[in-house]
Design a protein that fits this description.
membrane, 2 domains, 35% helix, Rossmann fold, ABC_transporter-like_ATP-bd, alpha/beta, 10 helices, six-stranded mixed β-sheet
Length: 283
């Protein structure tokens, strides 16, 4: 079996300005992959190419084994998309939103009605089936987006900032849903600005910057490569940090300092590595 998602030397140019350059990576079936990058890194353009909304200027993009340029309809039949922006119709009921999506995908009855009930129950919205979407909370709307994206049983799910703007309790509930979907075999590509979310959910993490794919690996692999220990120093209003191969090496460095005022040692995390690679924190 080939990769669920594959990009080979992909380039995208708008008005002679390259926004994605030489992009190559693959995501395996059943993998949860986190795509990170500062604003303007090219993540959104990459996602648009993967879901067959934007044609690449160069290179090959394949999703579920289909070329997104040659077979966009087949790609869309195999993917579900959960956007950051609320994309459900707020003037329709929960059920009507699901019914409309099911008809768009030509799911026949009675299979359509059974699938709608199944997925509304899965995201705990069965009791709100007759409610207008505009009466739902932000977390409920996001859960409805997930149910709608799953209605036609896609093998691949794209989730763009799925928990942005949600309270911590609702975010944790969505984490449970995402992990369960992945555990049941769904391939998921996740973009997020929450580092702890990527670290907790994703099997592998890819980092983009300035339109290029600059690094990928598991969190353990990235920490081993860039440093498992960190020294942080506060001077006035400026915070500086330095990665060390191990936490022990960082601790030894701290012990050797004549003045340890405003200095601390701790294990490195994904955000530390991200800043090391891009020079910026995610806002």
């Amino acid at each position: 079996m080939g990769p669920a998602i594959s990009l080979q030397d992909v380039r995208k140019v708008y008005d002679r300005v390259p926004v994605v350059e030489g992009l190559s990576f693959a995501i395996q079936p059943g993998e949860m992959f986190g795509l990170l990058g500062p604003n303007g890194a090219g993540k959104s353009t990459t996602i648009r190419m993967l879901i067959a909304l934007t044609r690449p200027s160069q290179g090959l993009v394949e999703v579920a084994g289909f070329d997104v340029t040659r077979h966009p309809a087949r790609v869309k039949a195999n993917i579900g998309v959960v956007l950051q922006q609320t994309s459900v119709d707020t003037e329709l009921t929960v059920w009507e939103n699901m019914e409309f999506h099911g008809r768009m995908h030509h799911i026949p009855n009675p299979r359509r009605r059974k699938a709608i009930s199944q997925w509304l129950e899965y995201v705990q919205l069965e009791d709100r089936r007759d409610s207008l979407v505009k009466t739902l909370s932000g977390g409920m709307k996001r859960r409805l987006q997930i149910a709608r994206a799953l209605l036609h049983d896609p093998s691949i799910l794209f989730m763009d900032e799925p928990t942005v703007g949600l309270d911590p309790q609702t975010r944790l509930r969505l984490w449970e849903i995402v992990r369960d979907l992945n555990g049941n075999g769904k391939t998921i590509l996740l973009t997020t600005h929450y580092m702890e979310e990527a670290a907790f959910l994703c099997d592998r993490i890819g980092i983009m910057d300035a339109g290029k794919f600059i690094e990928s690996g598991t969190l353990a692999e990235l920490r081993q490569k860039y440093g498992e220990g960190l020294i942080v120093k506060q001077t006035a209003d400026r915070l500086t940090s330095e990665l060390f191969p191990t936490l022990e090496a960082a601790s030894q460095h701290l012990d050797s300092l004549p003045d340890r005022t405003g200095v601390m040692c701790r294990p490195s995390n994904l955000e530390d590595i991200f800043v090391e690679l891009t020079g910026r924190r995610l806002d």
